[in-house]
Fold this sequence. Notes:
The protein is α+β, with helices and mostly antiparallel strands. 41% of the residues lie in helices and 24% in strands. The protein has a single domain, classed as Heat Shock Protein 90 (2-Layer Sandwich).
Amino acid sequence: MSQAYDYIEMKIPAKPNFIGVIRLTLSGIASRMGFTYDEIEDLKIATSEACTNAVQHAYKDNQGEVKISFGLYEDRLEVMVSDSGESCDFDEVRQGLGPYENGQNVEFLREGGLGLYLIETLMDEVKIHQHEGVTVFMTKFLEREQVEMDAKTLST
Length: 156
């Protein structure tokens, strides 16, 4: 039984000046969902890194597009950044992803891996799929229930 969610998909030209549009969109989505300012900043940095890697490494001469998909759940936000340029099914891709493993041979990891390190540090879950391009699938959970439970524990 799958949980209901809202789905938003955007495609941008593989050019650096369009990444700001994704950051603004993501900020609006995450704010509406109830993420904190710091969580929104983490989401923006991680998503920007994934988009920048796609823009810099996926296409020659910035000829192509990057697809950014958002799955809005009650308890989390899932962000998928894909540089294949081809349309794909969000649910199908999510089911086919495995966890990222150290040493995985993905193009942008060879650039020093700092972008991936940032993404993994800032997001709760990161999965990478390499098939006709690279797809980075990131999850950030809404922590408000846990924070409320911790606050109650501390006050007793």
